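Long-time lurker. I teach an intro course on protein structure, and each term I like to show students one example going from raw sequence to a predicted 3D structure in token notation. This year I'd like something fresh instead of my usual example. Would anyone be willing to generate the tokens for the chain below so I can use it in lecture? Attribution to the forum is fine with me.
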Amino acid sequence: MGSLNPGGIGEFLREQRRNAQLSLRQLADAAGVSNPYLSQIERGLRKPSAEILQQLAKALRISAETLYVRAGMLEEREGTDIDVAAAILADPSITEQQKQALLQIYASFRAQNGGEGPDGAGSRP
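-- Reply from a regular --
Happy to contribute to a lecture. Here you go:
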């Protein structure tokens, strides 16, 4: 039997792990998952739950939304949305609480502007 989603979430996780210079075991420990389970995810043999993806995103210091999109759990939005969230989550100079506050503020501004781009194009009649 082949992989469930070749080139999907597993390959992306492996790439992110390598970019973060983490071993499989280090990421598994940081995310609170077993080493064999993470290996199976990376090889496309297992499909992780949203909760596992959230734990992996936190350990990799990337946006959980990015992982949800890659796993097919969310539809991809404009690239700037994901980049902003990823930048906030990756910033080592602010606390996790501050990151969450910034993400909430950003989401509220987007909702207020009709979910359009930063210039608000298309949000007015």
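Some talking points for your students: The helical segments are 9-19, 24-31, 35-42, 50-60, 64-70, 79-90, 96-112. Residues 1-7, 117-125 have pLDDT under 50 and may be disordered.
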